[in-house]
């Protein structure tokens, strides 16, 4: 089982989504910032958010959502189960976002993102390009605000 985190960054009723690069797995799909857990889930969420977007948040800024998603997918012919833990943060000011390329533990390039967009929470359920790891019940998001 692969454990991952996704971070729901909310500003002005919108959620930050990253658009995957053309040369990545699932090109042009939108996803929440996040990645594999390499230490504790909260610390991984903070690290992944900063690595992928240059947004730096403290532990006190992130809240754990009482919702976890478990799903199975095919990865190069191997059935893989993934569990996703979600964290969220409300920002009072629009953050400066910079899309960064990241590398894995061995220094090899990981999935890259080509851009980002702020999407209204009410529109998330209609996005056809939302990656499986980022699909979350719209009801849960609406009740955060």
What are the key terms here?
145 residues, Nucleoside Triphosphate Pyrophosphohydrolase, seven-stranded mixed sheet, 2 helices
Tell me what the structure shows.
This protein is mainly beta and 145 residues long. The protein has one domain: Nucleoside Triphosphate Pyrophosphohydrolase (Alpha-Beta Complex). 12% of the residues lie in helices and 39% in strands. The protein has two helices and seven strands. It has helices at residues 41-53, 138-142; strands at residues 2-11, 14-20, 30-31, 34-36, 63-75, 78-91, 113-120. Strands 1, 2, 3, 4, 5, 6 and 7 form a seven-stranded mixed β-sheet that branches. A hairpin with a 2-residue loop joins strand 5 and strand 6. The longest helix has 13 residues, at 41-53. The N and C termini lie far apart (32 Å).
Instruction: Please tell me the CATH architecture by its name.
Output: Alpha-Beta Complex
Helix run count: 2
CATH evolutionary superfamily: Nucleoside Triphosphate Pyrophosphohydrolase
Beta-strand content estimate: 35-45%
Mean pLDDT: 87
Query: Quick one: CATH class?
Result: Alpha Beta
Helix content: 10-25%
Provide a short characterization of the protein structure.
The protein is mostly beta strands. It contains 2 helices and 7 strands. The protein starts with a strand and ends with a helix.
């Amino acid at each position: 089982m692969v454990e991952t985190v996704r971070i729901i960054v909310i500003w002005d009723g919108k959620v930050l989504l990253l658009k995957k690069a053309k040369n990545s797995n699932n090109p042009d799909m939108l996803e929440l910032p996040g990645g594999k857990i390499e230490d504790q889930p909260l610390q991984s969420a903070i690290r992944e958010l900063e690595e992928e977007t240059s947004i730096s948040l403290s532990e006190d800024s992130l809240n754990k959502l009482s919702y976890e998603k478990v799903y199975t997918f095919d990865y190069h012919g191997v059935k893989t189960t993934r569990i996703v833990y979600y964290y969220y943060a409300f920002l009072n000011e629009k953050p400066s976002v910079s899309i960064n390329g990241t590398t894995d533990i061995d220094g090899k390039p990981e999935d890259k993102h080509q851009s980002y967009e702020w999407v209204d929470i009410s529109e998330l359920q209609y996005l056809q390009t939302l990656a499986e790891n980022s699909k979350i019940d719209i009801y849960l998001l609406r009740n955060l605000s």
